[in-house]
Design goal:
- By secondary structure, this protein is an alpha+beta fold.
- It has three domains: 244 residues; 106 residues, Immunoglobulin-like; 86 residues, no CATH class.
- 27% of the residues lie in helices and 23% in strands.
- The strands form six sheets. It has a six-stranded mixed beta sheet, sandwiched between helices.
- α4 packs parallel to α8 and α10 packs across α11.
- The chain starts with 23 loop residues before the first strand and ends in a 17-residue tail after the last strand.
Amino acid sequence: MANDVVFIKGQGGLGRPLAGEDHISALLFYTSATLPTGFSSNYRIKQVFSLAEAEALGITNVGTGATASTATFEVTNKGAVGDTVKLVVTGIEGAVTIANYTQVTADVSTLTTSAARLAAEINLGTSTHGYSASPSTATVTITAPLTEGIFLNSGTPYVATLTGTVAGTLTQNVVAGVASTIDIMHYHIEEYFRLQPKGNLYIGIYAVSSDFAEVTTMQNYALGAIRQLGVYTQAAYATGTVTLLQTQATNNEANHKPLEILYNPDFAGTADLTALTTTHSLSSQNVSVMFGQDGAAKGYKLWKATNKSIGCLGTCLGAVAFAKVSESIAWVSKFNVANTEYETLNFANGQVYNVISDGSINNLDAKGFVFLRKHTSLTGSYFNNPYTSTLVTSDYSRINNNRTINKAIRGMRTFLLPALASPIKVNEDGSLTDDVIAYFESLCKRALDVMQRDAEVSAFSVRIDPTQDVLSTSTLEISVSIVPLGSADNIEVNVGFAVSI
């Protein structure tokens, strides 16, 4: 063939949007802190399709909005050549040496030169340890990284070790640190997109609410498209909040905009796990309570920086968005969420997972909290069960059951709505004609056939009583029964020895 330059198209992983709307999600953050740059008091909701888009709106993980804690070291004796100065800080990631040197002639001219040397040594390592310093006469002000939050505000994290005649006064916690709430937002958004890379996420940021009406505000903003919404708040866990959130879910369902709510409150003050009451005594079938947390990576560091529950909200929301509506996020082969993050597990009150007794873990599961767990002989971390806050015997005590029936309802309504107020032909005795029955049954079946094909329901039936009196009531009653997919939440194997097979 003739000479040519040939181009071969490849697959670059563009991340095409997912079909349907099952994955559309929202994160609602309650905070009175400074808003990210892309938000304002008049524009509190944004839609993003990637972590990068959220970062472009000012939701970063560099301590934005935080106040750096400071300490001071005042040189009271400049010391002599050969004296040594070592300064160590025990921060979130453990002890780090921020200065360690031996004084030379230039350092011992005055108190000012001695202080200047200390500040210079600290600043030489800023790119590594994150601490910086500024001298003023004999006093050095040491500024911690913004990501340390409140961690250095108590105790004696700074330790100075001096040899020779050099001397000074170390003052802890001169300026108290304040943690960044924007870092927490970034964490949950990052986790959401880690679990659902093709996600469609609405982000809302509001001050503390008394009734959580912002759930409905966000759903209306999204024109009813949100299927699952996560609520992050640093207010303490309260069953009353679960009830208020359910009120919002119920109101949205009544207006044909059903959604599932994942509630991530603060459990920092909950030292006694047995004091937690069961969520299964509540009547909040659309609200799930998060109680899992990372134990060594980013989530853990944020916990240390804030002394507030960080939780597993973004991770759970991403898993739900990634799952088919019929799938449990406890499915072991599909939902291993460990990837540096969650390799080590804590609970949302800071207690370490692997030091809690099996009985306590089982008790938490029985109370309906959603957390991350380990399976013996299997690496990774997994959700326990996708519980909702209602009776465990309820048809709607699992997120996947709710998502399945809500999808069925949405689908059937889409096909039935054009037929609303349409004329209905009846037989001489007032009963419905076969054509009418077949027509309305077909409208329901169109939605359910697709779900059955996609293995989102096992089976279904649609029935219309031909004898119903539509002429008097102007109401057509349709009975739909759906057989959902089961879930192998427990597998029992009978095993034993035998003398022969």
